[in-house]
Amino acid sequence: MANMAQSIRLALHYAETNYDLKDVFGQDVGMPLGGVFTATQGLKTAWNTTLDERGIIGMAMGIAMAGDRCVAEIQFADYIFNTIDLLKIAGNTLWCTNGRYNLPMTVMTPVGAGIRGSVYHSHSFDAWASRLAGWKVVMPSNPLDAYGLLLSCIKDPNPCMFLKPKALMRVRGDELIPGEPANEKELKNMIDAPIGDRSNWKAQWPQVEEYLVPFGKGKITRTGDQITVVSYGRHLLLCNEVADQLKQEGFSVEVIDLRSIYPYDWPLIKASVEKTGRVVFVNEDTEVTNFAEHLSYRVVQELFYNLLARPRVVAGKHIPGIGLHPNLEDASVPQKHDIEQAVREVCMEVP
Amino acid sequence: MSKAKNTVPSESKTSSNPKVESFSGLSKNILVQMYKHMVKTRVLEERLIKIYRAGESYFWIGGPGEEAWGVPLGMLAKKGQGPMYDYLHLHYRCSPTVVAMGLDMLTSIRLMMNRTTDRSTGGRNFSNHFVIPEWNIAPVTSPLEVQYPIACGTAHVQKRTQGSKALTIVTGGDAGTAEGDFASCLILASRRGQELPMLITVQNNKWGISTSYEGQHGETFIADRAKAFNIKAEVINGNDPVESYLKIQESMDYIRKTGKPAFLEAMVSRLYGHSSASGANPIQNEVDPVKDFEQRLLKAGHITLPEVKALWEDYELEGIRAAEQARTEPVPQADSIWNHTYVDNENADWRNF
Between chains, do A98 and B158 touch, taking CB under 8 Å as contact? Predict the structure, then answer.
C-alpha cells in the first residue's frame, strides 16, 4: 500500500507518461533529493529551481501560457505568501483575458502542522487558497485520493492548487491505486530512491492506471444520523477517530471528507445536515475568516430551519505562528480532544 | 533629452556626404514604414486621451514617447502563435509595438471604451492591456514586473521546442526594476547551461509616476545589473528608431544564434506623464521621437511635407471613425461577471454548487 508521498510520485509519473506533463519543478524537486518529502523522486520531468518562489510561480504561469502542463512545487506553504499576487493573477488570467488565455498549471505545496515544524513549517493555506478566485483547490486525506485529486488537477485546464497535508506523507491508506503492487516492499524497491549514491538509480514504475477524483465531490467516511462533521486533510483522520470512539458511547457521527475545497460538495453537506440537524466544521487554518466560516454561514442561511444546534467551527487559533514546543503547537491547532469536545457539545445542545 | 540620455552614444547617422543622413544603411522602405507606425501610434494615443477627456472612458495609460523604441521591436518580432514564434510579455506603454505588428485603431479603442467587442478583455481592463494570443502577446497586467518571471516560462518552452529559433521578449519600465521579479528574471534566464532565449528589455523614461529615477537608483545603468549575470547588455537611445532597430536586430540575431539572453535598456521619453491619473498633459521638455524622426526623413528627402500632412490627417480620420464605431457597440452586462472564471464557463458561483 503506497504512502501519500509515493502516491503523489505515482500520479506525477502517470501524468508525465499519459498527460504530456512536461515539467515538475521547484526547490530540490529534481534529483538527487526528489523533494523534501520524496514525492518527486525518479521522475523524468522533475528539475530543480533557484530558491525563488516568485520565480517558480512565474515560470509555471509562462509554461502554462505557452500551452504546456506543469506542476510547480512550493517547498512549504509557509513560503508561498510572497507569491500571493502572482497566484491572484494566475486565477484571474482567463477572466481578465475574456477567456483567451487559460493556465493549465498545478501548484502543490505541503501544508499544516503535526510534524513539530515550528513557525515556518506549520502554516495552513486552505483558507487563503479558497479566496483565490479562478483556482480549484483540493486537499487529500489518504494516498488514493491524493493520486486521484492530483491527476484531476493536472488534467484540468484551470490553475489548480494541490495542498499536501505534510503530516500524512508517510501515512498509508486502505485502498490500492489501480495498478499498484499490493506488496509495500515491492513498491518501495521499485520507486524509492536508495540511500547514498543515486546517480545511476532509475525508478521501475508499476503500470498504474488512471484514477480521477472529480472536483467538488466529497465522500462520507463515517455514516451517522446525529451530527455531521466536515473536514479534509489530516484532520479528517482525527474526525474519523472521534466518530469511532464516540460510537462506543452511542453517538452517531457522520463524517464528510470534503476533499475539494473549491469547488466544494454542497449537495453532500446539505443532505447530511438536513438529516442530522447538527454540524461541526474542522480544519487547522486560523479561525478568523476561515473557509469553514463560509460553510457555516451557508448552513445558517440555507438550512437554518433544519438546525437543532448552532453550527460550530473548530480551527486554528488566530495567532501569528505555531510555536515549536508541543505544548504550543497542540494549543494552536485543533487536537482530537478539541474535536471530540465540540461534537459532544453540539450533540448535547438543546434547541 | 536629459543629461543621462545624452550619455548614450548614438549610431553614426552620416554618409560619405555629411549633409545627407545615411540612417546606418536602413532602406527607405523600412524607414518610412517605421515612421508611419510611429505616427499612427501617436495619433491613436492622442485619440485615447481625447476619449478619456470626453468622459467616454475611465482611465488612460499608454506609451506616447516610446514610439522610436516600440515600433522597431514590433516590426522585428517573429509574429505568430505558439512556441515557434516570438512571445511578447509587454507592459501598458507598448502600443507602438502592437501597432507595428498590425493593430488597427478600432481594436485599441474598443479596449479603451470597454466594449464587449474588445477582444483583449471584453471590457474588463484598462487601455493598452492587450491580449492577443494569435500574435503570442501575453496578457498585459497592471502589476508591474510580474511579466519578467512569467516570460521565463514561455522562453523555457521555446528552448525545448525542436527547430524553434523563436525567442521571448519582455518589456518594462525603469521604476519596476526595483521589484524582485526583475532579478528573478535575470537569474532564471542566465543559469549556466540553462540559458533562456530572451530579449530582456527596460524602457527607461526616468520616472515612476512622480518619482524620479535619480533618487531611487545607485547603479549607473540598469543594464549594468544584467552584465553581472553575464548577459550581453547594452544601453541605447530609444528615441532614435534607427539605433533601436539595429540594436534590437543585433540582439535578436545573437539570441536566435546562441539560445542565450540579451538585454537592452532603451532611454526613452514620457510625453504625456504617467497616465490620466497625472493629467495626461503634454510634457514639453522631452524629445519627441516622432517629430524628431519626421524632420530627419524630411531632410533626407524620404518623405515630403504634403505626404506628412496627409498621413497625420488619414490616421486622425481613422481614429475618429473608430471611436464613432465603438460608440455604437454594446457594453458588458451584469450577468456576464461569472464568465471565464473557469474554462468553458464551468460554474464557479458557490451559490450554484
Answer: no
